[in-house]
Amino acid sequence: MTLARKLPGLVEAACLVGLAGFLVYLLLAGNYWMYLNPKFKGLSWAAAAALGSLGLYSAVRPPAGATWLRACLYLSVLGLCLMSELGLQRWFDSSGVDSQAAEDAQATLPPRVTLHGVEYVRINLGELFDIAGKGPSPRLRDNYAVRGFVRRSPENDTKGEFVLYRLALYCCFADSTAVGFRVRQPLGEALPQNGSWQVVYGALEDSGDPDSDKIATIEGSAFASVNPDYRIVSRRMDAEKAPGMGMMYEWHAEEPYAY
Question: Average pLDDT of 102-108?
Answer without folding.
Answer: 54
